[in-house]
């Protein structure tokens, strides 16, 4: 890496790295460092009366240092929290050689470095439980400075709180911001509790293909890739449904998968194109059973994460204790809009949309129109867990017809905090009915609906062998974690959310400058001075300023280069001439 690409602090740290090696200290040792204690546990179990003092071996990242002559303090951050460490020069270096303290600890150690220490636990005169360091070993040298977040009198200074940086550099966010790691530990608790609940009920976790020749199981736009070996286009799965149902056909009592789905759609506070979903299918059950099962499961998860059935998000307390309200979707629409859509045709519903001042287009069928009305006027109003049930058949191409309500299906969506959390059916197992619904979906595709389902002939073949009565559900894990941890943005519960590419300033290659007669060794200093392109250099009206900037850079970075005012002016003139010729 060119030295001009580094900040001053980065240069200092790299110089320290070289000095450590000159001292015979490996800044990145390979040997195991045995750790037998962690910060939170040490502080929780400390006993003032314990004799002899407890000996510990700990390791972590240096987060703060207070150098005070022969005695100093540092703050060590391990995977559990932080603890103060007292370092005394003569105890750390009992012999004549004091370099471990005077050189390594005081001069070459930086905030962000990893160290291992051994010593005993004690309480300082100010009452803080600390470790009295008796040995210190450098375990990893940090070459970039951490943002230092300061808290004084309840106020936070220099916070690392820019969302763009936090999500893009999650590793820094986890280091310096309290509570971030806790969110992802809670996410792990959600997944662990979910798995345990499903396993305890006798259901089998399975894995199905992510690369699929036909994207099925949902209405969504897929990602497309190319499989070179077969020379065919493949799709990243949008759902696991159709493969899991094949396993029910094959004889499994209940199967589930917790995995990634991919939908080539927008990004916002509630959507990421790559997301985690649970899908569960159980034979001989229906959607009424699945509603009761889901209520019990969510209550158990909330208690595991929060200690009670309640969670707070956006200032609202949401209670996952059963039972939840069950409301037919057409009744919900009538309740919120005053329009009764039962028995209405597509044209009649389209006219209602216009009366509601909604923007709809000709590609939308009856199901899509109803979905748009519900999303616009109803969805956001359901804060407490509410099952929206009995969807029209046009909205549910994989759902069994309602046993007593013609034109409706046995489907529910669970709404919580104004968003869909789960989608579930009494699964359609009539292969003839299923084929016709696929045909209807293809008609929508012909009209331009790029989210309509494609006919999956192998799935139809599987149904023709016979699938028992089955209930299935899909739950968005990311949204579930948002609800359980009180976060309003999906990016806050994804370790590495999808981000737009980083903005990179346009920078001409070295050859563009040398073609003007500029020596190659001066190109990097010119760009360091802020003139990244020939165009920027040619637009400069004060060559003398550039000359002075180059002198400062040359001196600061000890480059040993030489030039004159006239040479610099000639470079600027050449760049300006090149621009005029190009125009």
From TrEMBL:
One of its GO terms (biological process) is lysyl-tRNA aminoacylation. It comes from the Bacteria. Keywords: Aminoacyl-tRNA synthetase, ATP-binding, Cytoplasm, Ligase, Magnesium, Metal-binding, Nucleotide-binding, Protein biosynthesis. Mg(2+) 2 binds at residue 420. One of its GO terms (molecular function) is ATP binding. GO terms for cellular component: cytosol. Pfam families: tRNA-synt_2, tRNA_anti-codon. Its main location: cytoplasm. Residues 190-501 form the Aminoacyl-transfer RNA synthetases class-II family profile domain. Its cofactor is Mg(2+). Transmembrane segments: none annotated. InterPro entries: Aa-tRNA-synt_II, aa-tRNA-synth_II, aa-tRNA-synth_II/BPL/LPL, Lys-tRNA-ligase_II, Lys-tRNA-ligase_II_N, Lys-tRNA-synth_II_C, NA-bd_OB-fold, NA-bd_OB_tRNA. PROSITE patterns: AA_TRNA_LIGASE_II (PS50862). Its EC number is 6.1.1.6. It catalyses: tRNA(Lys) + L-lysine + ATP = L-lysyl-tRNA(Lys) + AMP + diphosphate. Mg(2+) 1 binds at residues 413, 420. Binds 3 Mg(2+) ions per subunit. It is found in: Cytoplasm. PANTHER family: LYSINE--TRNA LIGASE, CHLOROPLASTIC_MITOCHONDRIAL, LYSYL-TRNA SYNTHETASE. Homodimer. Belongs to the class-II aminoacyl-tRNA synthetase family. HAMAP family: Lys_tRNA_synth_class2. This is Lysine--tRNA ligase. It comes from Sodaliphilus pleomorphus. The gene is lysS.
